[in-house]
Design goal:
single chain, 68 residues, mainly alpha, flat
Length: 68
Amino acid sequence: MSAPTHTPPRPAATGRADTRLPWWALALPTLAFVTLLLLILNPSEAQAAPAEPGLGLLLERVQQLVTR
């Protein structure tokens, strides 16, 4: 009983791929980097956001369930 032979795959095209990124693909990481850098340089301006009391209770409940 003979097995079918597989043909070797064709080599990839040597042409250059034309890939363009949208403007925000570079702008958003740059903005995040600059923001974090400014927070590191001046941490007195950073303030913690007020937490919702329900979120704390939910996290405590999840922790209790996980530790059982």
